[in-house]
Task: structure prediction
Amino acid sequence: MDFNKLRNNLQNRYFSTWEYFSNGFNALKVFSKKHPILLFFHFLFSFFLGVVVMFQGAEIIAVMDKIVKKYGSTKINSNEFVKSKEFNELTSEVMLFILCFIIVYLIIRFISAVIRKKMGLEVEERENEFSLVEIIVKFLTITFVNIVLQVFLIILGIIITVFTRSTLSFLILWIILQLNLLYFEQAYYLRKINIIEAFKYNFYISKGNRIRMLTALLTIFTVFVGINYFSSWLFEATIKNQVTLMTVNAVFGGIAGLLYTVFGTMVSNLVYLNLEYVDFNNR
Result:
């Protein structure tokens, strides 16, 4: 693929959604040939995440079934239940699930950040500027900010729910927040700017351009949700062994997660670069 020609086209005019998809797919083929190991690790940890959800989730359900069978028809003091073997087992399984999920999820997010940066540099033909240290620092920074933001949103959500007796207001607030962060990750990882500057530039470039990014991302999301739904139905209808079914779902989930991430990342990078280039030329 001629990346120089692609950049010239991105600089000269706004692309249609189809052009983002077609150019993103062609660029992705080049990227896949250059970085198969990176993509393999994304698949591997996406598969591990599926294993955690499927198998560890099944363990939690099994423990809960045991609790229901043992205590479902009898009255038990809450203090006695907390001290029971079943409660300790349930707590251990849940904590293990949460710990494994968080660790694997963060690894996937980090690999996704590396993929985003490498994709952007390849389109701009600046691969020699890649810095793993820069990505690590940025990833740790944004992870810390996300944790603080999530805690704040949880507290705010509880307060809103208590006073309004509805989660609708909180849901609307969350949607508004997401609509105002559509270009944040692209600005933050593709450019050598700090998190505050990325927030500011995200707000600037979002003006009048939210639909452009939203249309592309929602289209990709809808397609992959449809594929996942159909595949889950197909696997459940054809595979009777539960362990085999969970394994197949985990493998397919890893593949689907990889394709969704890399294609969505490439397309969102192209949307961002297109807007940035055109904006720069119009100044």
